[in-house]
Amino acid sequence: MEDWSRSDYCGEITKEQEGTEITLMGWVQRRRDHGGVIFTDLRDRFGLVQVVFSPEVNEDTFELADELRKEYVIAVKGKVKARPEAMINEELATGEVEVYASELKILAEAETPPFMIDDEIKTSEELRLKHRYLDLRRNPMQDNIKLRHNVKQAVREYLDDNRFLEVETPMLTKSTPEGARDFLVPSRVNKGKFYALPQSPQLFKQLLMVSGMDRYFQITRCFRDEDLRADRQPEFTQIDIEMSFMNQEDILDMIEGMIEEVFAAADIEEKLDFPQMSYEEAMKRYGTDRPDTRFDMELIDLSEIVADSDFNVFSGTVADGGQVKGINAKGCADFSRGDIDKLTDFVADYGAKGLAWIKVTEDGVESQIAKFLADEEIDAIIDKMSAEAGDLLLFVADNPKVVAASLGNLRLKLGEELDLIPEDEFDFLWVTDFPLLEWDEDEERYISLHHPFTMPKEEDIELLDEDPTAVKSQAYDLVLNGIEIGGGSIRIHDIDLQKKIFELLDMGADEVEEKFGFLLEAFKYGAPPHGGIAFGLDRLVMLLGNLNTIRDVIAFPKTQRATCLLTDAPSEVDEGQLGELALELEDLELD
RNA sequence: GGGGACGUGGUGUAGCUGGUUAACACGCCGGCCUGUCACGCCGGAGAUCGCGAGUUCGACUCUCGUCGUCCCCGCCA
């Protein structure tokens, strides 16, 4: 090996190299032994090339090639030859050539892998994760990792061009209230005290603005100790950005430019459009703050029509301050009672106590609730929902939260099942004007919708005292195909306003001092107006790659139970390690 | 914390109204083959059916529990 140097990559051999001696190194994808001649496909990161072993070239090499098996790592010296016309493989990028091996070195033997290194995977994700290094050999996974790399490169280049500075912030930092549960790291030097892993670099990036960095970014890991989902991992990567002396529109413009570069880097040639919609409108029309705007089927408010109805479920709900809303499932009047029961079970997950329905047919309506509704009410509903014969109208009556969640998710489910969602489209939406605060029933206090450093809209600041939940904020989320990929805000840079917000959040002066004293202290020394945004890199790459889970764009992800099947983390530690940290375990029922 | 789906040779599946040798494909091993590229042909090995308990004369099959993976609610931007 010492005296061999790779001259080319397998996937990049061309006809122009005909006659040249080359040295290749890689993995044996496949061996086809024809007795008198052996063909192998040699694979590296850049593709495959056929290597031919023939006794006419070198008898010893030919015999050694008999030992080759799948995934053996080999080095080959040989001559590039153009294939005869009839033997060209159109399927292969290097299908016009083959390499006649004169010398072969087996660099590493390989056991038969637990699953084949094929593009089409036919095994469980469990096994893939356990042998992730093998899974990552597969083309689709290599493509995902490359895509992720390309996106990061595009981001860095764009931000660098716009004079941003990449700055690293601590991973061992301070636990803060609000937001997600922290991952804690015990301090050995300071026994009994803990660091927290960052949920985001939020406070540090604001401090960097006070430092006069003007424009900061970082592509960095963030940690949240909450339950996992297809698009949520305990550690994930943010593209974190902060800018000084920029208003909201300035920031959105800057980010749109970045997204355009990212799409170019992902080879997606689509003209991108970035419409904006207020939070209020999104909730009203789609029942969610991250609407998938690739299809219609919007939520229609029928509360006024049925407010005085004899149908108590509807009128009573409205009288109690609730809503009655519906969606029009076009052409679904042929749904069976069983189909609708399934939808009813589905909305029950979101708290809906029932799902009323009306089938619109050529001969009128068919419905379990028709007998309770006046004809003019039914007509008004049909009119408002633009219903035609063949449509199925579905209704939920409840408090606004339940109505939004149940119909919003029902809309998504039906959109998917009815194939209403254009797969290869990229629909962006800025959702703006979020409420600054919402009332938390359990904790009996206001909590920040975004985070406590979010700037209220200037014209709403005076409402902070009399009607805090009416205050809108200068916060914005970027939604792509119904998935939130980024969110940010203009921050508060005024010490008094920040204190006021902490007060509204029911944080005592002592707590504020202990948790955020350093930030308020910093603001005393001249803080510029600033704002920023953070993107979920994993989600962004997942969408660009048309994938269903961020696990597919993370080299070594965790399972839904937050374990790593490859390393078996997390694991127990020995008593000595605990002792050094002055920690003791409660008696757990371990067997 | 809750709801749901799945678990059978190395891999993917079939079998399951309870019954004697658990089937098929791919892979693997051996043999033959000088133009294949999902090579082909012949032969072979390989599973106590995730684990535990129960019901039964008898359990891959039924029941309960448990473990693991995935999806969802809660939680979390």
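qc> The two ends of chain A are 49 Å apart (CA to CA).
qc> done
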